[in-house]
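User: Here's a chain of 158 residues. Predict its fold as tokens.
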Amino acid sequence: MRRTAARPRKVPTVSREPLPEPWRSALEPTGIASKRGLASRVGISPQTAKRLIDGIGSPSAETVARVADELFDGDRARVWELAGIAREDHGDWVLPPEASQLDADQRAAVLAVVRAMLPADVRHRQTGEERGAVPLTKREKSQQLQTRAARKGTGKPT
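Assistant: Prediction complete.
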């Protein structure tokens, strides 16, 4: 049996072509003249920079925050605008202190309602910390398991 060498996977490359408008004008004062330059300066992958600048998909909140913090004094709206995505930033949203009394299942229900109200591209992209999910404490995890077990009638955590 004859073995053949595996073909190397073709990885999309990011060219060093000049930035398109409005990115060129916005980044000119920073000295950044290419997608690779943006990626290097901000600490994102070249592919992420390409998607952001070319308006492919919707950038993650983390990517927008990195670009905004590094280049635009934290102005996230400016990055969304440059990316061609109409988005209103209503600022961070914090639940009232009474929400700390909600158990794990109730918290999950509140998060599910919030996610259901988000546009589909945001809903499918965000995970974990981006969604603002607060990690459960060990005690809360244990209570959650006990509650689920009690509902199933086993009495033991699953």
